[in-house]
Design brief:
Blueprint (H helix, E strand, L loop, with lengths): L18 E5 L5 E6 H11 L2 E6 L6 E5 L1 H18 L5 E6 L5 H16 L3 E7 L8 H14 L4 E10 L2 E8 L1
Parallel strand pairs: 1-4, 5-6
Antiparallel strand pairs: 1-2, 3-4, 6-8, 7-8
Length: 172
């Protein structure tokens, strides 16, 4: 049975070449040395011998604290993950004969969503006989599009999905 494959660089006794190009703990080039000599120097310094460039000829190894190296890499990954922005799709629901104040409230929310960098899905729901007047719904969505034109672009043009008309807008 083969031992499980380790991720990350090879360290200390895992390095299986005869000679390595060594960089000491101060970052200075030592040159090409035998692996035993390199391990000896790392032991004397109280640090680890870490293979930083395994594909070079001979492989480049550095004398550093491996635990500290892993910790710093983990911190970098976490920092990068913190800076990521996920784009959500927020939805606002309208009706064809929406009142002006209700419309203004919905538009204020849509504006806030777009300013936060999220996409906005505008859903216009038809009930009963309203299905006969889809042109009124299209006018409401046109009004939304015109009002948000300076901060958002239409990603998906209005289209019917069953009893509702849907349009998706994203930040410019």
């Amino acid at each position: 049975m083969t031992p499980p494959k380790k991720d990350g660089p090879r360290v200390n006794e895992d390095i299986s070449v005869a000679q390595v190009r060594l960089v000491d703990e101060n970052g200075e080039q030592v040159g090409v040395v035998d692996i035993d000599d390199a391990l000896q120097r790392a032991g004397n310094a109280g640090l680890d011998l870490v293979e930083v460039s395994p594909n070079a000829e001979p492989p480049v190894c550095k004398i550093i604290d491996y635990g500290k190296l892993k910790y710093q890499e983990q911190k970098k990954k976490n920092e990068a993950r913190k800076k990521q922005k996920t784009i959500d799709v927020k939805e606002i629901k309208l009706r064809p004969n929406i009142d002006t104040h209700d419309y203004d409230v919905k538009m204020r929310n849509a504006r806030r969503f777009i300013d936060d960098g999220d996409k906005v899905k505008v859903t216009l729901r038809f009930r009963g006989r309203e299905m006969a007047h889809q042109d009124l719904g299209a006018q409401v969505l046109e009004r939304v599009r015109d009002e948000l034109d300076e901060i958002a672009k239409v990603e998906q043009m209005p289209k019917m999905e069953g009893r509702q008309m849907v349009m998706v807008m994203s930040p410019k």
